[in-house]
Specification:
By secondary structure, the protein is an all-alpha fold. The chain is 77% helix and 0% strand. It is rod-shaped and about 115 Å long.
Length: 93
Amino acid sequence: MNPPDDNLNFQPVRPDGVPLSDARKTDASLDQVREMLDQTKNNLIRTQRRIDRIERQAESFSRQLMALWVLVIMVIVGFALLTWYQVLLQRKP
């Protein structure tokens, strides 16, 4: 007959009743989750900054385009007025 095995692999226990090896694994996984959460938060902040910058650039482009259209319209109106004035001068005998 084999003697009973006395090596039962008892693990030290924390005061809350969780074995220490499980507690270490849990703490390590919680640290990983915190680290991933921090990375995600930083990525979101960086993405929000990019979005804000792109929105500012789009607004600036829109203002520049509007100013360009105003300039083009002013040139066309000026050319039309100049042509009209020359036509008036040619009609006078």
